[in-house]
Design goal:
The protein is of the alpha+beta class and 419 residues long. It is built from 12 helices and 18 strands. Helix content is 36%, strand content 23%.
């Protein structure tokens, strides 16, 4: 029995390490380290870009024979990239950002989105050409604005062999595109308010090539306004006779909000600039059908409050009732936000000392057409701006755009009684 016990202890005893076994282990460890360094050097010099990224520090990891074999099968990329852990908020814990995302049905342009060409497929052919002339011009203007050089006086960019002020350049670009459409008989720009023959036939276009040009150097959003009338003249007409109108916005995104006779609502088109399959195309991003009540206001020409008691009272109403002030000094983005937010009012009132500056043909009537198609209301203090006849290209008027309730308040408090 004792002999058996002794034999068992001898079998279980740990053999004492020899010097040769210690050397072998050291040699193996050195070889593994050298091989790892070699792999990293090769990856950083000749491997694809995704493998040549800096190696991030990782928590200490214990490697077994099994894990080393697994890494060898996964390849060098897996060995150099430690696993990352992602922390997700529990579903039952309120997360502010995720709650906002769930509450907003944000417009998303995809490769299946409707293009402007598809949207206009059933529109009268010459009207299509006139509209597409404006879309082509706005695409070019948007690029010229993004790449313009500015000083404290103006912004400039190349137009052919010339360096032109950006508003003059925009004017030239629009005239060129309308002339090329072949569907425009007459065009007139706010820059030079005369009726210019275009050589085509079918429609006439009035436009403000770059509304807000004085704030481009600050990198605020600016825009283009246009209205399209049938025939060959731009006087003796009313806003109700427009066949289409639009607002181009050059901001973080380049968009055009378009309203077309016979198509319900106003519709925003986004210029795709992401090198996708639709790069360079205009795609439908959202549609506007209603403008509701809400405490958002954009007050223009506030100097008029000094001698227009009605405008002063209206401003105090907004202030006392804690309306949100959203005003940049660019008429296009200040009006466009009313459709995007679905609420609010834009007002540019006048007085005896602070006369109206906005021109009926180039700004007021086209925007009024878009706003009313979007479900809002417009007024000069007594009636819709679309009912005012354009007697001359330089006709000017005060105006309010927005929800029905806000425009009614403008008519009640301001109207024309202090002019």
């Amino acid at each position: 029995h004792s002999r058996n016990t002794m034999d068992s202890s001898l079998l279980l005893a740990k053999p004492s390490p020899s010097s040769s076994s210690r050397c072998a282990k050291i040699s193996i460890a050195v070889n593994v380290a050298l091989a790892t360094i070699g792999f990293i050097a090769v990856a950083s010099n000749g491997a694809p870009a995704q493998l040549a990224q800096p190696v991030r520090a990782a928590n200490p990891t214990t490697f077994s024979a099994h894990s080393m074999a697994g890494m060898s099968q996964m390849g060098m990329s897996a060995m150099r990239r430690p696993q990352q852990q992602f922390n997700f908020a529990p579903m039952n814990r309120p997360a502010r950002h995720s709650m906002k995302m769930q509450a907003v049905d944000a417009p998303v342009a995809t490769e299946q989105s409707t293009t402007i060409e598809e949207f206009l497929a059933n529109t009268e052919p010459k009207l299509q050409k006139a509209i597409m002339g404006m879309f082509s011009a706005c695409k070019e203007i948007g690029y010229k604005i993004r790449t313009a050089s500015c000083d404290k006086q103006a912004c400039f960019n190349a137009f052919g062999d010339e360096q032109l002020a950006i508003d003059v350049l925009a004017d030239n670009v629009i005239f060129e595109n309308l002339r090329a459409s072949g569907a425009v008989a007459t065009a007139s720009s706010e820059e030079e308010p005369t009726e210019v023959p275009m050589g085509g036939e079918g429609y006439s276009v009035a436009f403000d090539p770059l509304d807000g040009s004085s704030i481009i150097d600050t990198n605020f959003a600016v825009g283009t306004i246009f209205g399209i009338w049938p025939g060959s003249k731009l006087t003796g007409i009313k806003g109700t006779e427009q066949k289409a109108a639009g607002l181009g916005v050059y901001g973080p995104r380049t968009t055009i909000t378009l309203a077309v006779d016979g198509i319900q609502g106003a519709h925003e088109f986004l210029l795709i600039d992401d090198y996708s399959a639709k790069h360079g195309q205009w795609v439908l991003s959202q549609s506007f059908m209603t403008i509701g009540e809400g405490k958002l206001f954009a007050p223009g020409n506030l100097r008029a409050t000094k001698d227009n008691k009605g405008y002063e009272e209206l401003f105090n109403y907004w202030y006392d009732n804690q309306y949100q002030l959203r005003y940049t000094g660019g008429m296009v983005p200040d009006v466009n936000q009313i459709m995007v937010k679905g609420k609010g009012v834009f007002v540019n009132a006048e007085s005896k000392a602070a006369k109206a500056k906005l021109r009926l043909l180039y700004e007021v009537a086209p925007i009024g057409y878009v706003i009313e198609k979007a479900g809002g209301k417009s007024s000069d203090g007594e009636q819709s701006v679309l009912n005012i006849e354009v007697v001359g290209t330089e006709d000017r008027t005060q105006v309010a755009y927005g929800s029905a309730g806000e425009v009614d308040r403008f008519e009640q408090l301001v109207g024309k009684k202090f002019l």
